Amino acid sequence: MPLWIASLLGLVEGLTEYLPVSSTGHLILAGHWLGARDEASKTFEIVIQAGAILAVVVHYRELLGRRVQGLWRRDPDAIRLATALAIAFVPAAAVGLLFHKKIKAYLFNPTSVALALAVGGVAMVVIERLFEKRHHPEATTLEAVGPREALWIGLAQVLALWPGASRAMCTILGGRLVGLSREIAAEFSFLLALPVLGAATAFDLYKNGKALLAEPGSGVALGVGFVISFFVAWAVIASFLRYLRRFGLAPFGVYRVALAALVLVVLRH
Predict the structure, then answer these.
(1) How far, in Å, CA of 33 to CA of 238, rounded?
(2) Residue 183: which of 239, 229, 257, 251 has the closest Cα?
């Protein structure tokens, strides 16, 4: 893979992984128009998620450090968060493990991505409008995420196995529907990325790592994509919560619908 393509894909991954617009969908579209659609390229797009994972670890290093130490001390808040993340992780992990090959074979294409972008975009706008009319109190701490909330968020995350749906969108909307504020739903989504993306990256690297590293210089391209993904994702995490407080999710829904329309128009020509 040429380094400029690796750099561009790393940029796309970093920009979109934690926004509710679907990083996988954007990578599929970018790879399609760049001609990077072989099996090694698909695995490259999944593995550079490790850069985005590291961005969460670095950004939330103090919180994660306290919670890890709390687990050793059997602190209730630390146990509650770890349990919630484990419960939310299981549904998508189980379904993804069972249907991994079929998902990559049938859904990793621009038309499938465009449909998921459009449906998700409409859902975001509608749900945001409904919440604007409600005046129920919302949970504003991570400790509010219990087993019930975590299970519903995890079930919502299963929908994100369809490329273009967006893991961030599904988990944030799932969090909103169980009573979390935008910020807490987004923070839980960020933290849930650690086991979910970590498992997906490790699994795909285990299954297809040889194809990824078969060509000379592929390790350098992977390193470039990883580094760019890390720094860009870190910047996105730092700014996304501030954006949510001011504007909410609806603008992302409008963007998704517009992008879906553009993709379908381009595909017809």
Answers:
(1) 30
(2) 239
Query: In the chain, where are the structural domains located?
Result: 3-268
**Residues 111, 7: Cα–Cα separation, whole Å:** 25
Residue count of the chain: 269
Where is pLDDT greater, at 136 or 182? Answer: 182
Give the Cα-Cα-Cα angle 221, 117, 5 (nearest 5 degrees): 15
Tens-digit pLDDT profile for residues 85-117: 999 999 999 998 888 888 878 888 888 999 999
Contact 227, 51 (CB under 8 A): yes
Amino acid at residue number 232 = V
pTM of this prediction exceeds 0.85: yes
Q: Quick count: other Cβ atoms within 10 Å of Cβ 138?
A: 17
C-alpha 51/C-alpha 232 separation (Å) is 9
Q: What gap in Å lies between CA 129 and CA 158, rounded to an integer?
A: 24
